[in-house]
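Handout, section 3.2

Students often ask what a structure token actually looks like in practice. Rather than define it abstractly, here is a full record for EamA-like transporter family protein. The first block is the sequence as you would receive it.
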Amino acid sequence: MVDLPNIKNYPKETKRIYLIICIFAAFLNKRLANKMKKGLFYAILASILWAIVNPFIKQGLSYDFTPMNFAGIRFTTVGIILFAYTWHKGMWREIRQHSKLFLNLILINMFMGYTAFYFGVDFVSGAISSIIMGMTPLINVLLAHLLASNDKLNTHKIISLIVSLIGLFLIIGMGSNGAPLDWKGITGIVLLLLSIIFQGYSAISVSEDKGKVNPIFLNAVQMFFGGLLIYMVGLGTEGYHSFIGKPGGFYASLAILVFISVFAFSFWFIALQSKGAKVSDINMCRLINPILGAVLSWIMLPDEYPTFSTVAGMVVIVSSLIIYFKGTEISEWFKKTKAGA
């Protein structure tokens, strides 16, 4: 059975949102929760939610809205919602006490990471952005090897990285219509890769500080202040864009994105702070993103459809996940087959 976090000393409001999260998790897949480690379970839930983000971002931006304005409104709204549940006595003292961690999340993860992400998504097709963001775990495995304690590369991880890079090369060579990418598409891919690096560094920081800060409160602070910073910079660089009187599709996209951020980031921080969780193992769950994200883009966005290069890239990248988690079993099977022959 999945071990639940020890929330005895958490504020009453935080206990409520933990209960909502646990009910939501159990509703999605009770059997899955009972069969795997808590960290991996919550990481998979977060990854499934994140997989559907890109099509809704592109849909929201299509209503004559700019990337930083849209991101700022989304994340600030999420922060307000989470603050309503996690507000507690002494929280400002807690923020000052762990100021390095909070500043890391606000400036590097939220501001730099999501500024690069939103412009990157706006520059490339929804399918390609979903698949490029599927490279998140592979880059984070390398970052964990370099920066995290007790999270080093082994033979299977190295093979998995190589296989995944082959998938990336298949993807970045072509646009969603099979034509070579122009400078805008290449810039979008570079921005998405920078976003992965910024957020990977922050994920390692959260994992290294296990148990020091309530993960949902951590999410509330980074969302509110990070979103506010993104919105203010957006006003200066993009100008003010009114979100009043927009078509229903705009508000539907925004509402779905807010819902995803409320739960996905909370799940993610719970996963990273789980006992015994490794950043590399947790991040490999995000290889779910390219499959679901790309398929949703092809379904939802009229100008996007599957090509040989994108589908082949998806297959290769997902194969790397199998190698990562089942490398030992695969090696043993080959040895037995060879010995039997």
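Discussion prompt for tutorial groups: Residues 308-340 form the longest helix (33 residues). How would you have guessed this from the sequence alone?
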